# Entry
Amino acid sequence: MLAALALPSAAAQADNPKLFAVVGTNDAFVISLRDAAGNLGTHLDTGTYAIAVSDRSEAHNFHLLGPGVNMATEIGQKQETTWTVTFADGRYLYVCDAHSTIMRGYFLVGNVPTTPLAGSVGPRKTISLMPRTALPGPATITVNDRSTKDNFHLSGPGANDKTGIRTRGRVTWHVDLVPGTYTYRSDKTRKLHGTLTVRFPG
# Structure
């Protein structure tokens, strides 16, 4: 496990891909981690990165955590620093510890395990999806549609998949889940519905 590395030579630092972390510009409730092109990082390759951290507010901090990594600036002071971090396969989260419910982001690194979920509808007026919570990242959703009067319709960030109302069968969908709420329902029967919550633990 690796939380931080001894600073490498200047030449080695120059070879590492660069990321830019910013929190609290003008004390605003914003936090981000971007690549050199200014894009929000959502999926990175494994390896060692140089992260330029700009903590611009005494009210906030930048906390990065995930497999082998747990690094943070301090609340109560501004800070400009560069971290050298090695990312392994897995899910990573960055938050402001003082406002963790609203100031957070995430990214995936390398090969992330796929989360299996199982949905069903019918044969009577029933619908379900298990489990009801999941981690961000790739997922397979296997749906057993046993009804010719209802269907299984999943919708949410990046997903809008459904079975047929008058047909039965088993289907598997491949979905990249992101933090938020997904809904599943029958398009025929309003009372048949539920939610899937995608979030990091804690």
Remarks:
- The longest strand covers residues 47-55.
